[in-house]
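Question: I have long wanted to understand how a fold can be written as tokens. Here is the record:
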Amino acid sequence: MPVSGEEKGLLGSRYYSDHPVFPLSSTVADLNIDMIGRVDSAHSSSAPYVYIIGSDRLSSELHEVNEIANRSVGLQLDYTFNAEDDPNRFYYRSDHYNFARKGVPCIFYFSGVHEDYHQPSDDVDKIRFDLLRQRALLVFHTAWELANRESRIVVDKPIK
């Protein structure tokens, strides 16, 4: 589900999570894709990666499903920004958070900050489409597993 107004205060996701078309109790998870086409300076010469934020914050099972899904994709899963004390606070700064605050397990897939972050110079010719594809495959495999499980993943951690 696309939403808008993220840069203005997560407005679209806040509105939907406060006025859902379908009850949030029927929402299994939120797999949030935000900026997955670039490479940051920490990974410029390393293996294909993606930052994973929030996968273990509400559900141990969601984290495990994503880890298993990655076995067929082969990305380096980087949890640097998932730390509770991360000064960037990315967990609270993208649309998944409005679902998490309502108890919906989420994963925020992110490729990190780069020199064109929120700048007019963030042009399509700078996207690494090979990495974008690989990252999208991870999201797909995770969603596929969640949709085809016999039972829902369990929320086993408190909302923060």
About this structure: The beta strands are 30-33, 49-53, 76-78, 106-110.
